[in-house]
């Protein structure tokens, strides 16, 4: 009897995880990438590494900090696009504060 509500909860969690859109930024202009992120709030961009052939790279790119998890901040990043090699976008990172120098560093 308890298995049914548990199965329903798992189904809802899986449906929410599939809701984020995935794109290949190398087939989009920089303006299209930025407008897609602005429209959807958060997207996953997947592309091939320029340094290691065949290595796929991906991350979750966001419009604002409200799409970040608690304790994370929005920070600048860049992705390759069809028209530029560095299209400016934002990702969420967890800051690490160096108490001695009062500077923030970001974990990868």
Automatic annotation (TrEMBL):
Taxonomic placement: Bacteria, Pseudomonadati, Pseudomonadota, Alphaproteobacteria, Hyphomicrobiales
Keyword vocabulary terms for this entry: Signal
Signal sequence region: 1-19
Name this protein carries in UniProt: KTSC domain-containing protein
């Amino acid at each position: 009897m308890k298995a049914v509500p548990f199965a329903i909860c798992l189904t809802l969690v899986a449906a929410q995880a599939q809701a984020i859109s995935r794109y290949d930024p190398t087939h989009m202009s920089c303006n299209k990438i930025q407008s897609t992120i602005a429209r959807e709030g958060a997207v996953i961009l997947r592309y091939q590494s320029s340094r290691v052939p065949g290595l796929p790279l991906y991350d979750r790119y966001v419009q604002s900090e409200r799409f970040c998890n608690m304790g994370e901040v929005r920070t600048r990043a860049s992705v390759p696009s069809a028209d530029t090699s560095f299209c400016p976008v934002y990702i969420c990172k967890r800051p690490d504060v160096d108490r001695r120098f009062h500077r923030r560093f970001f974990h990868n």
